[in-house]
Design brief:
3-stranded antiparallel β-sheet; 2 helices; 5 strands; 194 residues; alpha+beta
């Protein structure tokens, strides 16, 4: 607090207010005391420049300066209240954003877990598809081998049929005699029938 009384640990400073030298002392720094003095001097000069004011006694002048200072103070208090309310609103918004951020982080963790599960499931499916493809390739190989074996068997069967047909034709040209067991002989001729 600034006053014009002298104290032990106080700063003393001569200042000029409204053309008069005044000694002020206080616990604040000399720069702060000088700033206050300039502010009061400015208010006194503003009051003296008003055209409507003709003359003032010392009390009226002091009262008007005090009212002007109180006006400045109340405006600052109102501005500070607006700032405080805005700060409170921003703080609330900040807390809401933090809450939403935490929810999003939590949702992201869940989504990452689900993604990991899906990736593991996909990996299992890829392995299963790989196993099925390998089994299919094995089946295709065996089918190709069986097809080849079937073709070879058909060719052998066709050759065997041809040999049989040839043998039938050759046999039809021969006459065989068979012993019937009673001493008689019968002659059979094989016909070319299937």
């Amino acid at each position: 607090m600034v006053n014009n009384n002298e104290g032990a640990d106080q700063t003393k400073l001569q200042v000029v207010i409204s053309g008069e030298v005044v000694v002020l002392s206080g616990e604040e720094s000399p720069e702060y005391i000088q700033r206050l003095a300039r502010y009061i001097d400015k208010k006194m000069l503003e009051l003296g420049r008003r055209k409507k004011v003709v003359s003032f006694n010392s009390f009226a002048k002091t009262l008007l300066v005090a009212i002007n200072i109180a006006d400045d103070l109340f405006k600052e208090i109102d501005a500070n209240e607006d700032i405080r309310l805005e700060h409170a609103r921003l703080q609330t918004d900040h807390e809401m954003v933090l809450s939403e951020f935490e929810l999003l982080k939590s949702a992201a963790r869940v989504a990452n877990g689900e993604l990991d599960d899906q990736l593991r499931a996909n990996e299992r499916l890829y392995k299963e598809v790989g196993a099925v493809k390998a089994k299919l390739a094995e089946c295709e190989t065996r089918l190709a081998e069986q097809t080849k074996a079937t073709q070879e068997a058909r060719e052998e069967l066709a050759n065997a049929k041809a040999e049989i047909e040839t043998a039938r034709r050759e046999l039809s040209d021969y006459i065989d005699t068979f012993n019937t067991g009673d001493g008689t002989k019968k002659v059979y001729k094989l016909n070319n029938k299937k």
